Please model this.
Amino acid sequence: MTATVLSSAERVLIFRLGSLGDTVVALPSFHLIARSFPAAERRVLANLPISPKAPSIASVLGDSGLVHGYFRYPPGLRDLPALFALWAALRRWRPALAIYLVEPRRPRAMARDVLFLKACGIGTVLAVPHGELGRHRPLAGELWESESARLARCLAGLGDAALDAPASWDLRLSEAERAAGQTLLAGWPGRGNFIAIGIGTKMQAKDWGEENWGSTLARLGQTHRGCGLVAFGSADEADRAQRLAGLWQGPTLNLCGRTSPREGAAVLAQARLFVGHDSGPMHLAAAMGVACVAVFSARHKPGIWYPHGRRHRVLYHRTSCFDCGLECCIEEGKRCLGAIAPAEVVAAANALLATPAAAETGR
Model:
């Protein structure tokens, strides 16, 4: 299709799976699509959350205007009535084209997805990551291309995703959402001077452990006694966050399970620093321009899921079993995470807290 035909599309379907972190890393791509098809109705084909820890794409994008609606992708392929209902809904909506904004998948799975979209009457499917588009490129040193950058390569035909522009990471929070963030902090002694933490995770293989987090927060709390601490996460992480917050010297606020992703973003925007696991809240904090100290397992190549920007400090220890992709690590006992000492995390946090924000450059 020519650029003229593409730009005149009235309905565009965006196929994107995942939850909080997956949505945030795709924000530059969503912005690029919105710029490329400003007059089109844009809807997302997305999966339903598989657990309370996984906010839906709709709860992250909200009423930002980046998209206008959603279709639900049924989990697995055995729910034939759900697949038929989706097929019928897409046939009725009649999008002119689909954009395949999905993580690298096996060729068979991609071919199945494209065939389904074609069967829905969609004539053009853009950005299917065949060949090099489905692989993260090695960068200088031991880093690899981020998922945000790989998605941008897939969409290069639409233009520049401008990964380093703050506007590309804008969630377009409403005044009501920003006010809700202010309300959550109203009357709290730590307002205006706090560190955000996110010590929960959906995967055992990413969990640094309560003992390590306890030691880290106890040390940081002693050094920064006048600073508050705000915990972010899902409702089932609230008890753990409360126990760890008890080791902090200053005022604490436990927001686990108490905010929507967008209200949480409004609170995170006011933090001096984020400290936590490789997680959705980490990516959300980075999108809001907050420097992050992030504890990473080596289940993926270094760099692919790092928070975007140059201000962050990532703790990643490469072991012989790196890039294993495991969600639960038993045999190796999480050697990669075990190699990260609380002192490293404390030193990284202290270094960022000692750096005036005005002197920092880049996201």
In short: DSSP finds 14 helices and eleven strands in the chain. The CA atoms of residues 85 and 351 lie 54 Å apart. Residues 1-5, 358-362 have pLDDT under 50 and may be disordered.
